[in-house]
Design brief:
The chain is an alpha+beta fold. The protein is built from twelve helices and 14 strands. Among the domains are: about 35 residues; about 160 residues, Beta-Lactamase (2-Layer Sandwich), CATH 3.30.450; about 150 residues, Heat Shock Protein 90, CATH 3.30.565.10.
């Protein structure tokens, strides 16, 4: 990933180009994803879908559990509210409760008649609804069942002053609200608080008449507090269980998909790929007619085998056509070979026949006999040379490798070839400069043939003969280029065939390039030809250097 540090403001078009041509996390992820195997990508995507599904389900379930718990706790708080309200009403309907005064049972200083004395002389302490509510709350809190208390914006007892939640709720009641619910977290513990208004009834005026209340006025409210730690702990436990189930399900599904994919897809694709790799070397005919399965991979295998059968038929047709073309080419090559041999042999034979007839008519002239005998010998040598060149085409005699100066050998061949040709300019770029272990005599024959052809190609007008040599990676490379007309494109692929020549009748046998090509091949080298950009032909010879052993 490439970090983008833009210190200077860029035009919008530059910013777009900068983002496109720089790697981003998304492009990096796509590269990594595209580099995965199909099985890995399939499992990854399935796992991602399952994870997203479980994530949504887990989130919604957790939220639903919390809503349900809060709803149940609210219902419990409402029930407790109404129970306490009914208890308060019962106490008010009976003008309070009276208890014998004693330790822990003290009179209420905010009541006018907080205590009375009975006929036996016992002091009785009065408990109004507010006192009963507060003392019951203490008992409930001791048992861990929650707390409840009554408060007002104008309390008689300062201990009943409202806190922030109660104050906000009381104000909302005066504005028409029917109840108030909140979840608070105090000292790391969660609790639900429920509060509803308390209306003034006729019994309430006994204690609150001085506050100028009227019947059905909102005298205050009662707050019920339910502890929620145990409920939220259960939710957390359920969430952990759901998370473990989700993880176990994802792992089980991934492993199941892995083995099923391997069994139903990967192995069959691997088998099909192996069959493709072996075709056509180890392909058995019966495998092309194997039964096909009805699924997608079976259909793919069927299409592949159908393709192989079509290829087999096409190959058979191609082989038949190739055999026909080969026979035609062989007949044409044989015709050119026979024509070349007949031409090269008939010319000297015709001259020799004329010499013999002349000698028969002039038997009494010894000088004429000697001169014609020499002509006969030249004709025999010419026929012998033609036959020898023909034999050299297919001869595979081992070459003799000797260490020598290749540059000097090339220079000698050029001097011999261009002797008496003042209209030919030789340009040398011989850069070997040291003795090499090569098939020297074979290379000498190749240079003589190539240089001779170049000189003949330039004709009587002459031209420039460029020769270069160099070493490249333990290989000898030399080129011979002329400034002649070059080689016609249609002849480039035939120029190394035996007896193929573009020269006039009597000017060449068509064996020189063929013999040269065979010699270079025998040296594990390469002889190529191309036309130069400025005209002329360029022959390139590349030969590996021989080892000392």
């Amino acid at each position: 990933m490439v970090a983008l540090h833009l210190n200077l403001p860029l035009p919008p078009s530059n910013i777009i180009l900068f983002i496109i041509f720089h790697e981003t996390p998304i492009t990096t992820a796509l590269k990594v994803f595209s580099g995965m195997q199909l099985r890995t990508r399939f499992i990854f995507l399935i796992g991602l879908v399952i994870s997203c599904s479980y994530g949504v389900t887990f989130y919604r379930t957790s939220d639903f559990q919390e809503e349900l718990v809060v709803e149940q706790a609210t219902l419990q708080a409402k029930m407790l509210f109404h129970q306490i309200r009914l208890t308060r009403q019962w106490v008010a309907d009976h003008n309070g409760l009276f208890f014998v005064k004693g330790p822990g049972v003290e009179p209420n200083p905010f009541l006018k008649e907080g205590q009375v004395r009975d006929a036996q002389g016992n002091w009785l302490v009065k408990r109004n609804p507010a006192m009963v509510t507060r003392e019951l709350s203490v008992y409930a809190a001791r048992e861990g069942m929650g707390q409840f208390n009554v408060t007002s914006l104008r309390p008689l007892n300062p201990d009943n002053a409202p806190d922030d939640f109660e104050r906000r709720s009381l104000i909302s009641f005066e504005q028409g609200a029917k109840e108030a619910i909140a979840i608070e977290k105090v000292a790391g513990k969660k609790r639900l608080r429920y509060m509803a208004p308390l209306l003034v009834e006729s019994q309430c005026l006994q204690c609150h008449a001085e506050q100028h209340y009227s019947i059905d006025d909102i005298r205050g409210g009662m707050n019920v507090t339910i502890p929620m730690d145990r409920a939220f702990a259960e939710i957390s436990s359920n969430n952990r269980m759901l998370l473990n189930i989700a993880l176990a399900t994802i792992v089980i599904v991934a492993l199941t998909i892995f083995f099923l994919f391997d069994l139903l897809v990967a192995r069959r694709l691997k088998s099909l790929a192996g069959e493709m790799d072996q075709y056509p070397l180890q392909c058995q005919p019966e495998s092309l007619n194997a039964p096909e399965e009805a699924d997608e991979i079976g259909t793919l295998a069927g299409h592949y085998r159908s393709l192989c059968r079509r290829l087999e038929r096409s190959q058979e047709e191609l082989d038949a056509t190739r055999e026909q073309v080969f026979q035609s080419e062989k007949q044409a090559a044989l015709g050119r070979l026979v024509a070349g041999i007949a031409h090269e042999i008939n010319n000297p034979l015709g001259g020799m026949q004329n010499c013999i007839q002349t000698m028969k008519r002039n038997m009494e002239q010894p000088d004429l006999q000697i001169r014609y005998l020499e002509l006969l010998a030249q004709g025999v040598d010419r026929i012998k040379g033609t036959v020898q060149q023909l034999l050299n085409i297919g001869r595979k005699e081992p070459l003799e490798f000797i260490r020598g100066d290749v540059d000097a050998m090339i220079d000698d061949c050029l001097e011999l070839t261009c002797m008496g040709r003042d209209n030919v300019t030789i340009t040398r770029q011989l850069k070997i400069g040291k003795p090499l272990l090569v098939g020297m005599e074979g290379l000498r024959q190749v240079v003589m043939n190539l240089a001779g052809n170049a000189v003949q190609a330039m004709g009587d007008t002459g031209g420039t003969l460029c020769v270069s040599s160099r070493l490249e990676d333990q290989r000898l490379v030399f080129e011979i280029a002329d400034s002649g007309p070059g080689i016609a494109p249609q002849h480039l692929d035939k120029i190394f065939e035996p007896f193929f020549t573009t020269k006039e009748v009597g000017e060449g046998t068509g064996l020189g390039l063929s013999v040269s090509h065979a010699l270079i091949k025998q040296m594990d080298g390469e002889l190529t030809v191309r036309n130069g950009a400025a005209g002329g032909a360029i022959f390139t010879v590349t030969v590996p250097l021989a080892r000392e052993e």
